[in-house]
Amino acid sequence: MLNCRACLWRCIQALEASHTNVQSLHHNAAPSLLFRNFMQTSTPTLRDGSQLSELSKADDAYRSGSEKWRESAQFAGLKKKEFKALTRNNIASRQTSVDASRKLGQCDPTVSAKDWNQRKKELQYLTDPLELANFVKRQLRKDKVMEMLQLVRMASHSMQCIVSWNHIIDHLLYKEKVAQALKVYNDMKKRAQFPDSYTYTILLRGLSANAHHSGSLEKALSVYHSLSAPNSRVQPSIIHTNAILKVCARANDMDALWGVVAKIPGTGPAAANGITYATILNAIRQSLLVGRPIGETGEQEAIRRERGVIEGRRIWEEVIIKWRNTDIVIKEELVCSMGRLLLIGSRPRDWDDVLSLVEQTMDIPRSVPRLGTPERLKAGLPPLRAPKVLEEFRYDDDHLSPEKAPMRGEEFLPIADPGIDGAVSNPLGYAKPSNNTLSLILEACQKVAAPQAADKYWDLLIDPVTYGIVPDLNSLTFRLRLLRQNRSSAKTVEMLKTYLVNGGLEPRPGIFRIAMSTCNRDKNNHNSLNHATQILDIMSATLEDADARVIAKYAELAIDFPLATGRDYMDALAHLQPVAENLRIQLGIGAGKYPDLSPLDGSDRQHALLALRKIFGLYDKLINSELVSEEEKRPYKEQRARMAHYLHRLNYQDHRRGRDVFDKKAYRVKKLVLERRGEEGKA
């Protein structure tokens, strides 16, 4: 029985060989006879069904590799020896080839022999540029800059290792070592390691991140202009242009920025994209806010902002033309850059155009008609009041002014469907809104006094069915400002409970200051003091230390509350007692349990003292009123006496601190006067 495939194959070869010999010896014989003899010889063996099944099983076992031989210890030992022999031969051949052909250059005199031998040993196993780059990147994470610089210099004699040089330059720029990074960049070129496109991108991006260092802009411009040199191996791309524009913007050098913009081609791979326009618009806005000349009046500032907004509108016209031609993609960053520029404009028209901008680029319809349109008059909306806007900029639109100028804002109108009779859908890809857009819309609604439109936008954007935006702290701040503008203290408390208590947002003290100001504006509401009390409790539960300004506003509301009763005063003092204790600890009184706590100083200390005085005034309000009985006033009189002691102690400390400072200054002045008199007497 033939159970082995190899044995079966040898038998068949033997039969074929004998058949061939028979044919060669008896070439005159009939072929049919020979074939009959062969079939008679092999037929009895192959007709047996059991043998056929066993042969198929052996064949399957051979193909699947499940032979008993492969499971034996002898087979495992042979494989192990075979692997060692092959590995030993490969390592030996690789080492001999590296040692024979690798050029490491002359030994650097600044490098010790130990370090040189160590780098040489490392290069024996780093024969590929990719392996070298990965090794350099790992070692740079351990801050081994000098070691890797030695390694790359040695490897540059035998291979192109540009990626490794890029890693070193990137690491040095991340560590804010600009001069050293540029030195490595020049050293790289001296060693015939020609920089690639990524090298220039890393350099310009790193210089933009270090724009606060002196000379970063000049160095970045030098690197960028070297790309346009006749002997440059790398052509400038829009990535390099965007990086240099960011350096100019952060350095607040608009002349350099416009010089770079003037050289951007209109078409091709180096043409401007969405990031380019967003960077330019952000730079214009920053220059209008930061680059204010000394001694500039309010009117001059308004005119300067007007010019900047007009420049941004012209840029946006170019953006829309390219968007319609599908040359660029509009994203949220670009939309919000234009919107933030409009919000600092001098005209209410600029603020209102933000909502048109969102409708144009995100397909979110306006919730309030445009300023200066008949639809706005039909809606019954009151005219916009802008008391802080100059007289010539106060009109809703230019066509309402005495000059009857043409209406502006046409560049933000929705783009019509390019199809014929609506047969072809609009191919424009709209931007997707997020919290950046939400805060932009809320700020625009606040400036144009459209609280109802803000409610509609808020409900639309946070709805999970439509956009599903989860508001962040910045969006919540703008929402609370709108509620303060509309005196909605009840909605304010609801917002704080939803997003701070249940939503998990980490609040800032400014959130509670806005919320408490809303209750102060809504003090004629008989529930406003109750809402303020809830806000105070939420602050105590979410903030580690109570905010003095919030406490002062709450005490002021309780004092001036026109519908207050004796029970309201007592409840307010009950809620103020724990936060007042927290303020005393922050001021350093009774802070022995907190040795690491530093007392408040400066303006924070003054705000804390003001809050305690407001609470003391609330005690006076309760004690001097006839709303409670004398028996009920007794514990509050004791608390008032203790607080008077605290305030007297704090005032004495501040007085001593101020007198000591005054005495030191007076002593210096007196000493200086006596010295001058002595010099004059000698003369």
General description of the model:
There is one protein chain. With 683 residues, this protein is an all-alpha fold. It folds into 4 domains: 5-25 and 32-61, no CATH class; 111-193; 272-381 and 392-404 and 430-463, no CATH class; 464-654. It has 28 helices and no strands. The longest helix is centred in the C-terminal third of the chain and has 53 residues, at 630-682. The chain is extended. The N and C termini lie far apart (134 Å). Mean pLDDT is 81; it is low at 18-56, 91-101, 397-402, 420-425 and 659-664. One of its GO terms (molecular function) is mRNA binding. Pfam families: PPR_2 (PF13041). This is Pentatricopeptide repeat protein-like protein.
Topology, pairings included?
Blueprint: H1 5-25, H2 31-46, H3 49-64, H4 73-101, H5 113-123, H6 129-140, H7 145-155, H8 162-174, H9 178-190, H10 197-209, H11 216-226, H12 238-250, H13 254-261, H14 274-290, H15 298-324, H16 332-343, H17 348-362, H18 374-378, H19 435-447, H20 451-462, H21 473-485, H22 489-501, H23 509-521, H24 528-542, H25 548-560, H26 566-586, H27 603-623, H28 630-682
